Amino acid sequence: MDAVNLLGFDLDGLAAYCEELGEKRFRATQLFRWIHQKGASDFAQMSDLAKSLRDKLATRARITPLPIISEHVSADGTVKWLFDVGAGNAVEAVFIPEDDRGTLCVSSQAGCAVGCRFCSTGHQGFSRNLDTGEIVAQLWYAEHSLRKRFNTAERVISNVVMMGMGEPLQNYSALVPALRTMLDDHGYGLSRRRVTVSTSGVVPMIDRLREDVPVALAVSLHAPNNPLRDQLVPLNKKYPIAELLDACNRYLEAAPRDFITFEYCMLDGVNDSPEQALELVKLLKGRVPCKLNLIPFNPFPASGLKRSSNERVRAFGDVLLQAGIVTTIRKTRGDDIDAACGQLAGEVQDRTRAHVRMVRAPVVVVKGAGAG
Ligand code: SAH
Ligand code: SF4
């Protein structure tokens, strides 16, 4: 019998597991705190648990980190880890330090089946979902290794963004317990406002997230109309913009913040004109309370796309700002170690023939097509 990985349980799950072993819930809480707050991986360390329980756990359970393939530290302090998830697949997590916070960007899948044109993960195709333990292991390892590195007992990671490899809402059942562990006061104790799920727009799962664990939501929009978004984010054909915006408004009823963040990756000559900025204003203004986050495209050769110039990004942002939409331009961090958005290469044994699907058909720019 395979030992159970305890990183895969949220507190309720661990309590149920402990009950099977004949243990009370408060034992599960103690165990959960050892694992997530103290970073323990050895039951022998857990001095306030009865020896009999520690022995029982040692024979049936484990706390399994992901094997590390590499760790890179950028000149700006960004740290990128590449984790081995078996069968030739690897996923990445990135730590981004800022003055007032420490953010960890976490992966949810080995690869991604959505296949966005501008995303290197999308180009690699899809291999498999990570399980809850593999999602949490990224945070567990990053938090506790950074504490050691900075020689502190204080929390280092204050924010988590599900913006690494994969579409988190296409791995919903593994995502939810992972989010609960992040939020739990006995786990990482992160505020709902500081945990962000980023999605390319899986409408039914946005509704479920609202019911189950309403954390902050970022939606990858990237285009002001359906014909263009269909090309950039193929999932748009299934859940077009109007349905997506409706789901955003429903989400806001339960969300910890009173706005949705829309991400918009700036692609030279594709979605970055002042006219498209106006179209975006028309689409969003008065429709969804939101902020816009403009992401300078991080190029990779297979995309055949180029980054918009800084001037063009600024001009685009100015149109939004003038219309009263709060707009930020994302700083690119960790460029020197390929840790920026959409550069997370990882390694994926593609099972979806993405490379065949994505054979270069040029993106056709459709002007003033309306969002439908
Ligand atoms: N699948 C989810 C989360 C992971 S992608 C989603 O799409 O939202 C996280 C963010 O990085 C998304 O906004 C995505 O559009 C953006 N991104 C992907 N490739 C990029 C690239 N090459 N340059 C800049 N941003 C990119
Ligand atoms: Fe998947 Fe997000 Fe990349 Fe699109 S941008 S392919 S949804 S990871």
Beta-strand content estimate: 15-25%
Q: What are the distinct ligands in this entry?
A: S-adenosyl-L-homocysteine, iron/sulfur cluster
Strand order of the largest sheet: 3-4-5-6-9-10-11-12-13-14
CATH superfamily of the largest domain: Aldolase class I
If you average the pLDDT, what whole number results?
92
Helical coverage, percent range: 25-40%
Major sheet: size, sense and barrel closure? Answer: 10 strands, mixed
General shape: globular
> Any idea what the radius of gyration is?
21 Å
CATH topology type of the largest domain: TIM Barrel
Count the helices. How many?
12
Poorly predicted regions are 368-372
Cα distance, first to last residue?
54 Å
Structure description:
- With 372 residues, this protein is of the alpha/beta class.
- It folds into two domains: 59 residues, DNA polymerase, domain 1, CATH 1.10.150.530; 290 residues, TIM Barrel (Alpha-Beta Barrel).
- The protein has twelve helices and 14 strands.
- The strands form three sheets. Strands 3-4-5-6-9-10-11-12-13-14 form a ten-stranded mixed sheet. Strands 1-2 form a two-stranded parallel ribbon.
- Helix 1 packs across helix 2, helix 5 runs parallel beside helix 6 and helix 10 runs parallel beside helix 11.
- It starts with a strand and ends in a 15-residue tail after the last helix.
- 45% of the residues are buried.
- The C terminus is likely disordered.
- S-adenosyl-L-homocysteine binds next to strand 10 and strand 12.
- The site of iron/sulfur cluster has 11 residues, from helix 4.
